[in-house]
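Review form for a predicted model. The reviewer records the input and the model, then writes brief findings.
Reviewer: anonymous (R2)
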Amino acid sequence: MPAYLKAAAFDPYEELVRYQRSQLSPGCYGATASFVGSMRDFNLDDNVSRMTLEHYPAMTRHYLERLCQATIEQFDLQDCLVIHRYGDILPGEPIVLTAAWSTHRAQAFDACRHLM
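Model under review:
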């Protein structure tokens, strides 16, 4: 149930497959739900060319790890994953990936939304 913070752009679908293959046994889950949030090139009526996200590393990581553990317990998950960007982000780049693995789809959807 890791939470990762990344300065560099990442491919959320590669990350999802890599994590699932390395951390979960085939057949131990019946549903996977994921969400990818990407940067837009607009906000209200303004064009946006970049965004900078700042964070306090120790506090952010601790919060995300606690969120993952609580979500696993609350929704009875096999596992979950959060990857969040920081630093300079360009339009079209993923900012966040959340994923949840559970026995049933309702749990996975609800948990994924909760992680966001």
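Findings: The mean pLDDT is 96.
Further findings: The longest strand covers residues 94-102.
Recommendation: see findings above.
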